[in-house]
Amino acid sequence: MPSAAERTRTLVQSTCSAVLLVPGLDSLRPDQLMPDARTVDTDGDVLLAFAADSPVVRAATHAQADELAAVLEVTDVAPVSVPHRIRGRAWVSGWLTRLPHGAEPGRTTLRLEVGEAFVDDLWGAGPVEPDEFAAAVPDPLSEHEAELLQHLHSAHSAEVGMLRSLLGERSGGTAAVPVGVDRFGLRVRFTGVNCFDARFDFPQPVRDVGELRRAMHALFDAASR
Q1: Residue 105, exposed/middle/buried by CB under 10 A (0-12, 13-18, 19+)?
Q2: Which of 17, 104, 146, 177 suits a disulfide with 79, CB 3.0-4.6 Å?
Q3: How far apart are CA 90 and CA 103, in angstroms?
């Protein structure tokens, strides 16, 4: 399974919604706290792009001589229609500073130096140390996960439903919806009288979409026997 650091890094570098929580800016609308873009540099610091005139940028500018504490909260929502769509959240806390360059016109880049992080998702909950976060690598499928799940749900719902045959005595549910895919396997939510998730692991981790297709065909073949 992916480590807590890998899951946190994946969420931070994904397209999931995120807000930057800064003391003193609690009264702002959520959209005013959402970075326009975010990435992680080679040192493991989170770089956040905001409009140059945003309240967050002003706060970071005024606090240049001091350490401004902030928390980046990322919320992961399943890209398919399913009960209980929130798959997890990650929090990255640290100190915010303004970079003198590194953004397009009209934008300012802020650096969040990571002090600690925490993830709570479908895998479980756990803390993440800054060095673990810096060394972690995002899941190779995360960039395409939304379209992959939507394609599986719309074009291969029958095959996904057949996977219940691999569950043995736990089989059940009136509908099967793919709610997560990563290099280790596929997660399916079975709904009905009882709602539960089941993981279907690949024989070995996949490295790209091509290997994922082969792994999915192997799963479907196993379910059809």
Answers
A1: exposed
A2: 146
A3: 25
The ranges assigned to domains in the chain are 4-135, 143-224
Q: How far, CA to CA in Å, does 225 sit from each of 46, 182, 204, 222?
A: 47, 25, 21, 6
Helix (H, G, I), strand (E, B) or coil at 146: helix
CATH architecture of 143-224: Alpha-Beta Barrel (3.20)
* Per-residue pLDDT tens over the stretch 71-104: 999 999 999 988 889 999 999 999 999 998 767 7
**CATH architecture under which domain 4-135 falls:** Roll (2.30)
pLDDT digits (tens, 9 = 90+) for 139-184: 999 999 999 999 999 999 999 999 999 987 666 667 899 999 999 9
Question: Rounded to two decimals, what is the model's pTM?
Answer: 0.91
Q: Which helix (H) or strand (E) holds 188?
A: strand 185-191
The CA R_g of the chain, rounded to the nearest whole Å, is: 20
